[in-house]
Amino acid sequence: MENFKTLNMDEGLVALKALAGARLVDVRTPGEFAEGRIPGALNIPLDTIGPGTRTALPDFATPLFVYCRSGMRSRAACAKFAELGYGEVCDIGGILDYAGPQER
C-alpha cells in the first residue's frame, strides 16, 4: 500500500497552486534539471533523498508535489519522502506530460 497520492500532471499542478506553502520537487539529475524545468521547482535528485533532505525541506508538514522525466523516479522518490516522514506527498508523474513553459 502506498503512503502517498498520485495525480496526473495537470491535476497535480492545480492542487499545488491551491495549497499554501506547497513545494514542487524535481527529482531528475542536476543536468536534466538545467536543461529545462517547471517554473518554481526545487531540484532534489532521487539518489540524494535521505536524512540530509531536511536541509532543503525542513518542515515535514510541507506538501510535496514530485515529478521526474517519465514518472518512474517520481514514484520511487515519493516512497522515500514518505518513509522520511513527510506527511503530504503527491506523485505527479513526468515532465514529458507538462505542456507549459519551462525555466532554464
Task: Provide structural commentary.
- The protein has helices at 9-18, 30-35, 72-84, and strands at 5-6, 23-26, 42-43, 64-68, 89-94.
- It is an alpha/beta fold and 104 residues long.
- Helix 2 links the parallel strand 2 (23-26) and strand 3 (42-43).
Q: Can you describe this structure in just a few lines?
A:
This protein has 104 residues and is α/β, with parallel strands linked by helices. It has helices at residues 9-18, 30-35, 72-84; strands at residues 5-6, 23-26, 42-43, 64-68, 89-94.
Class from helix and strand fractions: alpha/beta
Determine Rg (CA atoms, Å). 12 Å
Judging from the principal axes of the Cα atoms, what is the shape? Answer: globular
Record field, number of beta strands: 5
